[in-house]
Amino acid sequence: MKRTLLIAFVFFSSLAYSQIELSRQVIGSLGQSETIYGDVDISATAGEAIVQTIFSDSLTLTQGFHQPAFKGFLDFSISITDALCPTSTDGFASITELVGCKPPYSILWSNGSKTNEAEDLGPGLYSVTITAEQCVLTKTFEVFSQPQSLCDLKFFNAFSPNDDGTNDTWEIENIESGDYDNNRIEIYNRWGQMIWEGEKYDNKDVVWKGESQNGQAIPAATYFYIATVNEVVYKGYIELTR
Description:
Layout: E1 3-12, E2 17-21, E3 25-27, E4 32-36, E5 40-44, E6 51-55, E7 59-66, E8 74-81, E9 91-100, E10 106-109, E11 117-121, E12 124-132, E13 135-143, E14 154-155, E15 158-159, E16 172-173, E17 183-188, E18 194-199, E19 221-229, E20 232-240
Parallel strand pairs: 15-20
Antiparallel strand pairs: 1-2, 1-3, 1-7, 4-5, 6-7, 8-9, 9-11, 10-12, 12-13, 14-16, 17-18, 17-19, 19-20
């Protein structure tokens, strides 16, 4: 970091005095040294503001540091959480490390948010503008997502609900992503009787545990599902083992 150095010399004698003020200089963090008037050595270091007076027979040296001001300087960083899938709107962005100028700050995201955070972002380009007294700065950023192939639904065809902590529920991969909230799952036995159904299946709060609709455990066997997701119908079988 740099500091501005002000050095003033005041020479006293029995008859008169004179004061010499050197122009302000910007010095680096390592400081600097120089000799003026042939026999006066100047050594300057960057640091906190100080005033020091050194007396000799005819010399008074006053040294002062002027801290730099950041008026008109504004900067910030953006933290980004990408969306899960190309059609998801679960991306997130927030302002971090906001420095410079004089608060209060006014924030405006391109999606209309006026807080430190922007939510419900899908993949794409966005911008945010921050203004303060005599300052304005706009930055653009992009929200990405994983490929669609990694977001497609995958219906597992086997599970074992025996409470051992592994494969205890029937999972549909990616159904919890937010793209597939509009869903209805129906489970049938081999005689075509529906034994369980659920809407908004999410592998957690709404999930089939190998039970009937009233919560009774059903025997190991082959069962069949009909899944209607975003008006698309999927069908298949499930092997339930215990």
